[in-house]
């Protein structure tokens, strides 16, 4: 069960905010000269339930992704995935090319290519990427062509609209991923079964971190021993399963403490702690502060 007290924005809400009807099959929309900070981000933490590509063309703004601060300016591309928590930290509004992709289409566009796993993890940790002029021209070219094909699709002027638009979306995805690969100097070697275990664990963690904080719970879900799961996750990420769980719980707690009017007791209950006292000790052990101290800091 996902924590409900952090607002969520999805593809449909973005379309409603822009009052935009020129989109592909209710699953992908491309906006030029859009306001990223005003229409996707807000002044309160918001959880994404879609994928977002935003290439900024004008202005500067500061915002947070999963409690980390970023400065976005002209020439930056921001890549955001479902589940990430974002919010705008200042009143600046930048112009950008915005691609909003529904969760459903994202899952079909992102191929089951295990060699991309490390790059996806890298983007999670480094969501803001500087794009040079060549990359900018490439992105604009794809977007112009996709907008033309979307119009043809909606007007019935093509018999293969789905195939063409999906193909262009996959091609653009790979172009952007390749830009990231070059900047990060990755070696895209094929991944093994251990990376599949990591992928499954992170998917389960995103779903259950606010319900269960034991290694045994996730190991049981994955039909393996806690020892084996712990060994694989530590080997691949350098972090223990317990640390991954704690990081997710603490991030959620910090967001709720800073952005909601909920009492500490209510937050403890929402995050499935048996008592407020237990939550307070858990929070202080991992942050060095009591929940109330963090809220007032």
General description of the model:
The chain has 297 residues and is α+β, with helices and mostly antiparallel strands. It folds into two domains: 7-184, Jelly Rolls, CATH 2.60.120; 193-296, Orthogonal Bundle (Arc Repressor Mutant, subunit A). 52% of the residues lie in helices and 19% in strands. It has 13 helices and nine strands. The protein has helices at residues 11-18, 36-39, 103-109, 117-125, 133-155, 161-184, 193-208, 215-221, 226-237, 241-259, 264-270, 276-287, 291-296; strands at 7-10, 28-35, 46-58, 60-65, 68-73, 76-80, 85-88, 95-102, 128-130. Strands 1, 2, 3, 4, 5, 6, 7, 8 and 9 form a nine-stranded mixed beta sheet that branches. Strand 4 (60-65) and strand 5 (68-73) form a beta hairpin. It is globular and about 65 Å long. The protein starts with 6 loop residues before the first strand and ends with a helix. The model has no long low-confidence stretch (mean pLDDT 83).
Separation of termini? Answer: 29 Å
Radius of gyration: 20 Å
The main pleated sheet reads as:
9 strands, mixed
The structural class is alpha+beta
Element string (H = helix, E = strand):
EHEHEEEEEEHHEHHHHHHHHH
The CATH architecture of the largest domain is Sandwich
CATH domain topology of the largest domain: Jelly Rolls
User: With helices defined by DSSP (H or I, 4 residues minimum), what is the helix count?
Assistant: 13
Range of strand content = 15-25%
